[in-house]
Amino acid sequence: MKLVVLGGGESGVGTALLGKKKQLEVFVSDYGTIQEKYKKVLIYSGIHWEEQQHSEELILDADVVMKSPGIPETAPIVRRLMTAGIPVISEIEFAARYTAAELIAITGSNGKTTTTLLTHHLLKEGGKQVGMAGNIGDSFAKMVSENDYDPYVLEISSFQLDGIIDFKPHIAVITNITPDHLDRYEYRFENYIASKFRIAENQDENDYLIYDADDPVLVDWLAKHPVKSRLLPFSLEKELEFGAYLNENKIVIKTAEDTMEIMRDTVALEGKHNLKNTMAAATVANLVRIRKETLRNSIANFQGAEHRLEKVLKIHHVQYINDSKATNVNATYYALDSMKTPTVWIVGGVDKGNDYNELMPLVREKVKAIICLGNDNSKIVDAFGNIAELLVETYSMEEAVKVAYKVARRGDTVLLSPACASFDLFENYEDRGNQFKQAIKRL
């Protein structure tokens, strides 16, 4: 069988390695340049590859094509493959075909990384031989080719879900859905919602879907598009027959087989959104039979995700917080909502069609100064120019941090929570967050 891999990044090279191990004829094609570390892996493994071009004759000779998530379906080569009737799938679809392990899949606009990390932590502490892959760490395909994990905890984006056919997680989690990546979905929110819900489309009555019962988008979609899986919602607002909810100072988790409680003040992560992430992860851990005492202890000692409300340093009684992973308005809403002191807010980057209106009440209440960081700050200036006491435009992280240092006073917080993508001034959100941390250390 001939496997063509489009894109020579983490997921592409992982797929190529798994394909080679399964004795498929593998060819990797990248229209851009392939990073040196990935080239070395391909050469060492004896896998044919090309860069800065797509050789159509070789690609259209494939039996199946794995498309990396960053390549849109509108790309000319993808359209030609679809016209030719050649299956174009995602890495998670390909890798899932070669493992019998239990799959736990987590998606959502925000919170999926924290929920994935916490779920992995709970299962690992509970003694499971658990692998963590997908949008985080090594590619799923590379893990399947090299290890014998069971279960897998997978963080999955909508782009990856767009390329599934038979992918069927035993436990699926949707943390929430807010408008994001609409440029990939014809600027139609319902297309993006449908993409996220593909996580449950192959599930049956023996599987579980865990979701936020306080999110009207999720509740409304489920009412109109029922799924076959067993529903285990979580809520901060109401008591539930099954699922996870708050009862005064306790998180209660109820399944058909079991009920357990976790004291709210033992949850290591701060913020209401992290209570929800904890509910989702704890529900998964309960379903896979992690001992309750182990589960409670593991929730209490979890450290959280880098670049997500990460406390960096306190300088002259000013706390600096790195929330570079907040690449949309909803993520920044959670960050601002968790601020307990006057906040100097660093915001901006590549706008993905943001509507800043939902942030207005929080900005009025919590933000004392806004520092814009991006090549084009006009939308942010228009939205908040008349609200903030001080609004400054900057064009480098060094400059933004220096301005924040001058503006902040004893007891304040400096928060990097951009609400935007990072590609104008940085390689990615990790680079942005790392530059923020380095600039603080140089103060």
From TrEMBL:
Residues 106-285 form the Mur ligase central domain. Residues 307-420 form the Mur ligase C-terminal domain. One of its GO terms (cellular component) is cytoplasm. It holds the Pfam family Mur_ligase_M. It is found in: Cytoplasm. The keyword Isomerase does not apply. Belongs to the MurCDEF family. Cell wall formation. Catalyzes the addition of glutamate to the nucleotide precursor UDP-N-acetylmuramoyl-L-alanine (UMA). NCBIfam families: murD. This is UDP-N-acetylmuramoylalanine--D-glutamate ligase. It comes from Sediminicola luteus.
